[in-house]
Amino acid sequence: MTTRPRLHATVVPPFAAPGVRLPRAFYERPAVEVARALLGQTLVHDDGGVRRAGRIVETEAYVSAEDRACHASKGRTARTEVMFGDAGHAYVYLIYGIHECFNVVTDVAGHPSAVLVRALEPIDGCLGRTDGPGKLTRALGVTRARNGADLVAGPLWIEQASAVDPRQIAEGPRIGVDYAGAWARRLLRFWLRGNPWVSAPATTRGR
């Protein structure tokens, strides 16, 4: 099993002033911590000079190469290379040949982990619905051309927003990972209770 230090364990959010892009330190934490902390923050894409943005309302954590639902469990490949690098970069990939999904790389280099952003509450310039991982990338104009993009400096970033009350956060199993055995049952999906933009708010195994 990969051993890695827990960085910034004593740092307490907020990591930046409201409306300011989150720094590298925000992402240099275990995926579960980042997945919860991303709720309520604002994902922004400068799409050719047009601001497209939404409030993050649903995430999933993919915690390590030992996580059978994580792409890194198949090893270090051209597709997963960005996951093995520094935190705070975008991991954008295609599923089912049609849907592009946006993830945030977390933790430390060499410990592959990421957080999938599953749903947004639209704020600015969205081109369509944002209640699903493939929908939100289309709505923000995010494609695989942004794979590997530095979220700390570049046209795709996440801004600090107001804090979320931990009591608002629900958790349950991730969606579409039944193949992952025991990992499929872990409560690694997080969402804001009662938000209408969550992709699949109901679950019989969450809380």
Please characterize this protein's 3D structure:
Mean pLDDT is 90; it is low at 1-12. This protein has a single domain, classed as 3-methyladenine DNA Glycosylase, Chain A (Roll). Strands 1, 2, 3, 4, 5, 6, 7 and 8 form an 8-stranded antiparallel beta sheet that branches. 10% of the residues lie in helices and 27% in strands. The protein has helices spanning 24-27, 31-38, 133-140; strands at 42-47, 50-62, 90-95, 99-105, 114-124, 156-159, 169-172, 189-192. It is globular. It is built from 3 helices and 8 strands. The relative contact order is 0.22.
Structural topology:
Elements: H1 24-27, H2 31-38, E1 42-47, E2 50-62, E3 90-95, E4 99-105, E5 114-124, H3 133-140, E6 156-159, E7 169-172, E8 189-192
H-E order: HHEEEEEHEEE
CATH class: Alpha Beta
Note the main sheet: 8 strands, antiparallel
| Structural class determined from secondary elements | mainly beta
Low-confidence runs of at least 5 consecutive residues: 1-12
Amino- and carboxy-terminal Cα gap: 29 Å
Integer tally of domains: 1
Helical fraction equals under 10%
Shape: globular
Quaternary class: single chain
Cα Rg: 16 Å
Mean pLDDT: 90
Strand fraction band? Answer: 25-35%
Tally of DSSP β-strands: 8
CATH architecture level-2 label: Roll
The CATH superfamily appears as Methylpurine-DNA glycosylase (MPG)
**In CATH terms, what is the fold-level topology?**
3-methyladenine DNA Glycosylase, Chain A
Number of helices: 3
